[in-house]
Design brief:
Blueprint lengths: L2 H25 L5 H6 L6 H13 L6 H9 L1 H32 L6 H8 L6 H33 L3 H50 L2 H9 L9 E4 L4 E4 L2 H8 L9 H9 L6 H31 L14 H9 L4 H37 L1 H6 L4 H19 L9 H23 L5 H22 L11 H18 L5 H10 L3
Antiparallel strand pairs: 1-2
Helix pairs in contact: 1-8, 1-14, 3-8, 3-11, 3-12, 3-14, 4-5, 4-12, 5-10, 5-11, 5-12, 5-20, 6-7, 7-8, 7-14, 7-16, 7-17, 7-18, 8-12, 8-14, 8-16, 9-12, 13-14, 14-16, 17-18, 17-19, 18-19
């Protein structure tokens, strides 16, 4: 192994050791199931903000977004980033504070399915069961894609067997999450957001330097038709530019709708120690997201110039997503310090993946142990904490099995799962928080309609192309909203106790 590889390995091992230690320390603070799954509602504003955004962005921020910008220019990546930035801010602005308050009013709910059940006084528990099934359907393969991303990173860096590398990554993630639960996941996510930020800044500064300065980057990008435009797009195969219409813009910006239904983000809102600190968290989260997304798109543009000047190979297709790995590899050849910085960059990619996978594991395991099996465990006098950890381990084993193929998809499934949660939970969450007349029948109809429409649009409608080629989240979200409104109005109004809780949660 070369000196550069040793330095990279040392940086990554140090990082992994730190997250395991955090898990160990946090394990001492978990006294019950509420602590394990919601951290006892004791998260500070900075940890809440940064852990929410780190668990949100995943490796897509450091690989998918720059890769998209590298290939096709600003339009696709830029409108997606704008949609995500707007969605982040609006979610923090209108949902965070009210959900924190309402989750307490609704019988101290500690999971999203529990909140829906308690909010609508659903004695049948259908809302909770269906919500838990939605989480399992979309989160287990999502977690598998995170394991696969870690395996591919280690395998490509050190030439080790993919499956072995993936198992090691999974063991580390499962280890600190099983030990410390939500508090460990949130604390490590906070640290991981810092590592991701350092990685982005190092890549940006180094990339601009190698590319010959910002002027050279802009000039090279301008030479490609439509590359720097938000109203045109660049076709890397044909080498030509083309119009970027309103349908494309709305489709990409629709990513922002997903935030209203993301369990691993919404749980952070429920866990903040004081609802009055939400405003500070909102500012921190929004600023970090805007800066990070902007740099992510910029790195793709800079990477093109680095390829143009011969510093990096020309990347095609899905290989464009390795742009930051390629930059780190180039950096590592410039001495020991540079190699250590390269290790930090690669640890940033690892951090972005782990920060999402740990939150997904917790959400999926809570759906099983707390929502699906909770009553059964209580009747049998079982330990909620033990059941939570065992369930988390079993889900991780399933995710490892799904990720065993080195050719398994990493990023395609992120888009699909994001749409699934956004359409299944997002409209129901907005109705639950802001529409007094909504009832459990409408919530059930919206949850089912949104989830089903994701599959219908993805596999039956969108392949028709043309005007139908819209990201499935947008039509599914609208269908779910319509179902909630229509069914709620056609069925009996909520009972008085539900309305009283709504008024209390509204602060009236």
């Amino acid at each position: 192994m070369t000196t550069a590889k040793i330095c990279i390995a040392a940086a990554i091992v140090a990082y992994l050791a730190i997250v395991i230690y955090i898990g160990y320390r946090c394990s001492k603070q978990n006294k019950n199931e509420d602590d394990f799954y919601l951290g006892g509602r004791k998260l500070g504003p900075f940890v809440t903000a940064m852990s929410a955004e780190a668990s949100d962005m995943s490796s897509w921020l450091l690989m998918g977004l720059p890769g998209l910008a590298y290939l096709t220019g600003v339009a696709d990546a830029g409108w997606t980033a704008i949609g995500l930035a707007v969605g982040t801010y609006v979610n923090w602005l209108i949902v965070a504070k009210r959900l924190r308050r309402y989750s307490l009013v609704a019988n101290n709910s500690i999971t999203l399915p529990q909140f829906f059940k308690n909010r609508y006084h659903d004695d049948s528990k259908l809302l909770m069961y269906i919500g838990a099934i939605v989480i399992i359907i979309f989160f287990i393969p999502y977690t598998a894609s995170g394991f696969a991303a870690c395996g591919k990173l280690f395998s490509s860096l050190f030439g080790v067997d993919y499956f072995t590398a993936m198992i090691i990554s999974a063991v580390v993630i499962v280890g600190y999450t099983m030990l410390g639960g939500f508090l460990a996941a949130s604390t490590t996510d906070f640290m991981q957001s810092i590592v991701m930020s350092i990685a982005l800044i190092v890549v940006l500064v180094f990339g601009v330097s190698v590319a010959g300065g910002f002027g050279a980057v802009v000039e090279n990008a301008k030479a490609l038709p439509g590359y720097l435009s938000l109203t045109q797009t660049y076709d890397p195969v044909a080498g030509t530019g083309g119009p970027y219409g309103l349908i494309n813009i709305f489709s990409m910006m629709a990513w922002g709708l997903g935030y209203f239904g993301m369990p691993h983000i919404l749980l952070r809102f429920m866990a903040i120690e004081n609802e009055e600190k939400v405003a500070l968290s909102r500012r921190v989260a929004s600023i970090w997201v805007v800066i990070s997304l902007t740099i992510g798109v910029g790195i793709g543009i800079i990477g093109y110039t680095m390829s143009k000047v011969g510093a990096l190979p020309v990347l095609e297709g899905s290989n464009s997503e390795t742009i930051i790995v390629q930059i780190a590899d180039y950096l590592s050849k410039n001495g020991v310090l540079a190699a250590l910085l390269a290790g930090v960059i690669l640890a940033g990619i690892l951090a972005s993946t782990m920060s999402t996978a740990d939150s997904q594991l917790l959400a999926a395991s809570s759906a099983v142990s707390s929502d699906l099996l909770g009553d059964s465990l209580k009747k049998k006098g079982g330990s909620g904490m033990a059941a939570a950890r065992i369930t988390l381990l079993l889900i991780a084993v399933i995710a490892v099995f799904l990720a065993r193929d080195p050719n398994s998809s990493v990023f395609g499934i992120v888009s699909f799962a994001w749409a699934g949660f956004g359409a299944s939970f997002g409209p129901v969450m907005l109705a639950a928080l802001f529409w007094k007349r909504s009832n459990r029948y409408g919530a059930l109809a919206g949850m089912v309609a949104g989830g089903v429409m994701i599959f219908v649009w993805k596999y039956l409608v969108r392949p028709m192309g043309g005007a139908w080629n819209i990201y499935e989240l947008l039509p599914a979200f609208l269908v779910a909203l319509l179902a909630i409104v229509v069914v709620s109005l056609l069925t009996p109004a909520p009972e008085k106790s539900i309305l009283e809780e709504f008024e209390k949660a509204s602060g009236k």
